[in-house]
Amino acid sequence: MVEIGKKAKDFCVASANAEQICLKDYAGKWVVLFFYVKDNTSG
């Protein structure tokens, strides 16, 4: 788990149109990361 104010490790994800989006591409910019549980689950 990443604590508030700590740096996250670099990672990449695929966008809706299959483009790779990497955290390193936003170096020096403000970024908000939000993760949520899988849709339609009790979590």
Summarize this entry quickly.
With 43 residues, the chain is mainly β. Helices cover 0% and strands 14% of the residues.
Can you walk me through this structure?
It contains no helices and 2 strands. By secondary structure, the protein is mainly beta. The protein has one domain. A two-stranded antiparallel sheet has the order 1-2. It is flat, with a radius of gyration of 13 Å. It starts with 11 loop residues before the first strand and ends in a 21-residue tail after the last strand. The model has no long low-confidence stretch (mean pLDDT 84).
Total DSSP E strands: 2
- What is the 3D shape? flat
Distinct helical segment count: 0
Order of helices and strands: EE
Largest beta sheet: what is the strand line-up?
1-2
User: Spans of 5+ residues with little confidence (pLDDT < 50)?
Assistant: none
Main sheet, how many strands, which sense, barrel?
Answer: 2 strands, antiparallel
Please tell me the overall pLDDT. Answer: 84
Label this structure with key terms:
mainly beta, 14% strand, two-stranded antiparallel sheet
Layout: helices, strands, pairs:
Layout: E1 12-14, E2 20-22
Antiparallel strand pairs: 1-2
